[in-house]
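Deliverable D5.2: sample structural annotation.
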Amino acid sequence: MKYRFLRFPEGKLKAFTMSYDDGCRGDLRLSDTLTKFGLKCTFNLNTKVNQSLSTEEIKEHFLSKGHEIAVHGAEHNAPGALRPIDGIRDVLECRLELEKQFGIIIRGMAYPDTGITCFSNNAQYAVIKKYLEDLDIAYSRTLGNDNNSFMLPEDWHAWMPSAHHNNPHLMEYIDEFLNIDAKKLYTAGRYPRLLYIWGHSFEFERENNWELLDEICEKISGKEDIWYATNIEIYNYVNAYNSLVFSADGTIVYNPTLVKLWFDIDHREYTINPGETLVIENK
């Protein structure tokens, strides 16, 4: 049997994304720095608290630069501490207001506060995931388990990032990520890799370490084998790839999506256009 693995746009093995919370004033500096280095970020916004950025600033510094905005709860409440009806209201009100404010479809989210790391008031992750799916929230970032596995999420509603920007091992993780060479990976280990950094821009202000952001950006940016994307771009691409239709013997593949896709079969790269049917060489 042949191994088949997703490849990101242009056949790249690796992807990099960032996620920052709360809509802080420091997000403007953060966004400008990331944009300068060609990096992409998802900014998770509240609508009833922590409203320190104007609509015009968000449009200018985030949306016009290719960054994403996502739900972070109207009142920044942890769904793990809420009754389902209250959790539903907090997410839905935030999404409705952001979509009305910016005139775009918003399907991403990061859990506010303690998120789904602890539960009370009869809250359960299975219930939270179900109502997020019902509210058409495609993914939600969680936290609490920094690691260097660089794996795509198995559960998009419990998307674990790689590390917070203050993690003392972050630079080691970045070096390890950069040193992954697709040509040197054994066949069964040629799965795609993702490095995902998160945080709050006010932490750079509080700890007076904006130079850390510059160091991270300089280290990770400008690499030909990395796709720099927002959270929703990664979600959309992976789900398009998972929509490919294969014949029973795996020799014919049809792309029913509107997305050009790349994949690797036993060290051979394939590209398939929207609506195309492709015959896989049997070698």
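Annotation notes: The radius of gyration is 20 Å. Residues 84-102 form the longest helix (19 residues).
The annotation will be released with the project's public dataset once the embargo ends.
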